[in-house]
Every structure is written in structure tokens, then in C-alpha cells.
Amino acid sequence: MKPAEQYRGFEQGPIRPPSEAESLLIRVTRNCPWNRCSFCPVYKNSTFSRRPIDHVLRDIDTVRMYTEAIVDSRKSGLKTLPANYNGFPLDDQQALHAAYQFVAGGMQSIFIQDGNSLIIHPDDFIRILKHLQNAFPMVKRVTSYGRSHTIARIDDHYLLQMAEAGLNRIHIGMESGSDKVLKLVNKGSDKATQILAGQKVKAAGIELSEYYMPGLGGKPLWEENASETADALNQINPDFIRLRTLALPPAAPLTRQFQEGKFIKMGDVDTARELLLFLESLEGITSTIRSDHVLNLFPEIDGTLPESGDKLQQTVRDFLVLPKEEQLLFCIGRRTHRMARLDDLTNPQLRRYTEQMRDELGATVENMDSIIDALMQRFI
Known about the structure:
Helix content is 43%, strand content 12%. The protein is of the alpha/beta class. The strands form 3 sheets. It has an 8-stranded mixed sheet with strand order 1-6-7-8-9-10-11-12.
């Protein structure tokens, strides 16, 4: 029999969605149980494991104690924490850091880690949710990542119980609704499963964030990536559609395929063309579109359908009709943080800064894609 795992203190995983920047991170599983997506570098060479439930509950109790100690010390006017609180030593530095971040963020949200925590038994997940409710009754949102393949197999009554126990939102990395693209990147799911999982989450009354990755199909499949993903999302009507433009980090298998000529990556202009087709293909839904990641070219794409549909599309249209030199200038500006929005092209000072950067980089219309790819490595 395998010996019981020893508790080694509060744990946190490596990632969370940008929208969960102020959330308390509670680690239920380690790494990703699938871990074969060719575009993802995060958990490669790592082994998936489920944390013992009593360890997770102990984490929750520990960070609750630390949070209470911080709040009480501030009420008392203390500038530093005491060595112990109610007889318990405050010596778990990771828990202490998590508690400080949680308090600073207003103690409003909790994110359950890692890549697919819903894979644990639903009864265990519900037990954790209820423990969170008891420990942090002030929290307004509890969220988690979940794979479509996993969610599709969870009985509806369990999802309803999760919602009742406080699970407010699930983040699903759909990436694409195209079966060809999903197979190309070894996603381990198909369009039908993506749709089923999304519909199950919505039927349970849980908010749903679906992620779409423009560029994931490369040049051969850009139209299918856009149209098939839009079709899947039209059938789901998620609360949020979040854009995550494809990038090629060094550790991702897809990067090696690109270097070997087996994957034809698109540049910013072609990816914008795909994004426009995607936005034009969304219909009959009330989702909020968010471009909330540094890898995206247009952060101003932010609005709720159907009323904001034309506005969201117009930004991309305006970019695509620009002369190539202007497209180059904006892409350089955006990728070097000299510009934040397409309208910044009309700002003389920002143009001057960006033109200087373009010249320093030696960027031209001809070498634009390779220069941009190098710049994007900084954000990966």
C-alpha cells in the first residue's frame, strides 16, 4: 500500500486566469491530468496528482487563520504580525503571502487550482466548496478551471449541488470548436463534447467563461477555426468569451512543429482577419467578449452581445484597412507597450516613441512577423 502523503504546508499552483488576479488560490490538484495540448507549455514534465482532501481543508483553515490575524492586527494598529495567533505559529510563509494578497484584494473571490480540479470526485469537490463557504462567508465568487471532457461526464445533479455549495463560475479552455484544429493540437476533446460541457454548466446556473484562441489552426485552418468556434459558442451562449491569441512559448510542442515547418503560424494581420470572421459569425447570444490578455492585439474589444457587436468588429475592420506601414507601426507599438489602443496611432507623441522603437528593431513590413514573434516571447 502506498504510504499516506505527508502535509508540507500551504500550496499554490503556477497559473490562474487574469480575471482571478485578486482571488485566493486554493490548490486541489497538481498540474493537468491531460497535459498533451501541443500549444501549452505550463505542466510539461510534471506529474498530475490529486491532493488529499484533508490537506486542502487544512490549507483553507490555515489561510483563514492568517487572514484573521492580518485583519485583527490592522484593526489594532499593529504594523507587523505577532509570531503566533491564538496560540498557533504564523510560520507558513506561502500561506502568509496568500493571506496578504487575499486581504489586499478585498477578500471577494477564490480560485480553485490547478488545471482541471473538477476531475476529483464530485462529493469531495462539494465538501471543499462547503468548507470554503464556512471559512470565508464574505466571499462573493468561487471559480475553477475545468476540461470539457471532464465536465461532460459529471452528472447534472452534482453540478447543481456545486452551484448550491458556492461554485459561481467555471473557466473552460475551449480554444477551438473545430474538430480538425482540436485534433491538430491534441486537445483531447471534440466540438460535440465542448458544446455539451458548456450547456451543462449553464443549465446548472453556474457562470461560464469560454476561451477562444485565434491563430490556433494556423494558415490552413484559420477560417474553420473562426467559424466552427463561433458555431459552438452560439450553441452554448456562455456568460464570457475570452480571447487568447496563440503564442509559441519555447516549451510548447507546437513551437517545435513550427520550427520544423509542420505548423504554419499566422502573423498579427492574418490573425486579426480570423478574429473578425469569428466576431462576425457570433449570433443569437448574449455573451460578454473580453480581450483581457497581454497577448491580444486589441484590448479595446470589450462588450456584450448583441448590442456591442458592431463596435467590437469595427476596431478590427479599422485595423485591416490601414496601410501596411500603419499596421506595422501599431503592432510594434502594442507589442512594446508604446500603444494600448488602435486610436493611439493618432497621438503624435506615442507615434514618435513607436517609430523610434520600430527603427531600433529594424522592423519592416517584410520582417514584421518574425520581429513580433520575438517581442511576444517577453510576455509568454
